[in-house]
Amino acid sequence: MQYWLTGIKNEIIFCNMAVELDDIDIRLLTALQADADRTNVELARIAGLSPAATLHRVRWLKESGVIRIISASLDPAAAGFPLQLYVAATLARQDPRSTRVFEEQVKALPQIIAADNVAGEMDYLLTVVARDVTDLQEVLAKLAARGGQRLVTHLKLAEVKPPSRLPLAVTSRAAGPPARQRRRAAARLGAPGVGRHDEGVDEPYLTGTHRWWHLSEPSPELLAAGAALTAGKPGVAVDLGCGLGTEIGYLAGRGWRGVGVDLSLAALARARALTGAAFACADVTSLPLRAGSADLLLDRGCFHYLAPAERPSYAREAGRVLRPGGRLLLRMCLNSAGVPNGLDDETIRVTFAAWHLAALDRMDLVSDTRTMPAITAILVRPESVIAADSRSA
Questions:
Q1: Which of 25, 372, 337 shows the shortest CA–CA distance to 214?
Q2: What average pLDDT score do residues 44-63 get?
Q3: Is residue 389 within 8 Å of residue 319, measured between CB atoms?
Q4: How far is residue 384's CA from residue 354's CA, in Å, rounded to a whole number?
Q5: What is the topology classification, in CATH, of domain 2-70?
Q6: Over the stretch 226-245, which tens digit does the pLDDT of each residue have?
Q7: Which residue did the predictor score with more confidence, 158 or 52?
Q8: CA triplet 359, 365, 369: central angle to 5 degrees?
Q9: How far is CA 329 from CA 100, 224, 287, 372, 375, in A?
Q10: Domain segments of the chain as ranges
Q11: Per the confidence metrics, is the pTM higher than 0.70?
Q12: What are the DSSP calls for 43-99, one per residue?
């Protein structure tokens, strides 16, 4: 029975599919393995992408499971743990309950810094650190009390080779034209924009990583807001960071006029093919629109990527483009690259201090592939937003 179970487990383990990696992934992963403390700007320089595209790519590597966690590597002896050992553990019984009880104890002991279930003469190989012999004896006693019948210790004398980088290589299905060629292809896809084009932001739409935030149908929060945004009739709408244009396309189909704005020509080319709306390549802090020309602004993927110094410019430009009484439906994600980004309710209140906050709610923002914690806000532009913003700056 034990051999049959082992065979099934091996089949599950070895049938796991590796994530496809291209040359940019390899450069980023190699750099992070060498020094996980690199800034996003340094990583962008290494990868040959813009900082925004680099952030998207690293987020995808985390969410696909290739990057488990980014953490600091400590020296145990310098941190006060002179004893470092490997413990080979064999269980008294080989049944699910005994295995669960032993593994729960292993996870509960902080001195056990790594543990693996292995094939062969032993059941587990544990990495243990201890401050002294008494500390080690307590660990071994607790393991023995939870089913560890045979515990063999191996004292670590010296580190011959520290944990090293994985020998990464481009997977065959991920192989393709170099990133530079793909970016040139993206530039050929799009019609001329009215603003500057950042080639790096094309990358997610060429590699498919945009699927982590794209939603191919009108968002639930847009549908739920309804009359709170539209004042009962269509007007002029602008979608900031529109991506593939799902929301502006939905409004265009219901009689709205307006434009989707993004820096990615690859995204805009696909958006034009999918919807009947108009699109422009432009920066959200310098929109190619007349003052007071919009009734509604939508933002589902832009604001939370802005640096703190850029947020006042965003608010001023939104206030310039919106007419007095116009509304901004803002969706602000609370995670970036899979970790909390420090944004909260106060971020919105400070950035839009002169605006009227009509609604504020925490929710899970849905995409085609996942949900993301976010804050949704409906902001109303007052009569003198630009002057008020300049006084609060």
A1: 372
A2: 84
A3: yes
A4: 8
A5: Arc Repressor Mutant, subunit A (1.10.10)
A6: 877 766 678 899 999 999 99
A7: 158
A8: 165
A9: 49, 11, 17, 17, 11
A10: 2-70, 83-155, 179-392
A11: no
A12: HHHHHTS-HHHHHHHHHHHHHTTSS----PPP-TTTTT--EEEEEEEEES--SHHHH
- Tokens at 161, concatenated: 């080779």
Beta bridge partners of 280: 261
Residues whose CB is less than 8 angstroms from the CB of residue 109 and which lie 6 or more positions away in sequence, other chains included: 139, 142, 143
Whether the CB-CB separation of 123 and 117 falls below 8 Å is answered with yes
Residue with tokens 């958006």: 271
- For residue 120 the two structure tokens come to 């062969």
Q: What value does the mean pLDDT of the chain take?
A: 83
| Site of tokens 């219901």 | 254
The answer to whether 156 and 247 are in contact (CB under 8 A) is: no
Given CATH 3.40.190.10, say whether it is the number of domain 83-155.
Answer: no
The first and second tokens of residue 296, run together, are 């509604």
User: Mean of the pLDDT values across residues 220-225?
Assistant: 91
Query: pLDDT tens-digit profile of 351-368?
Result: 999 999 999 999 999 998
Fold exhibited by the domain 179-392: Rossmann fold (3.40.50)
Hey, is 317 helix, strand or coil?
A: helix
Q: Compute the 3-state secondary structure of the chain and give helix, strand, coil in percent, each to the nearest 5.
A: 40, 25, 35
Q: Which two tokens stand for residue 147?
A: 């089913």
Cβ(29)–Cβ(182) below 8 Å? no
Give the type of residue at 17. M
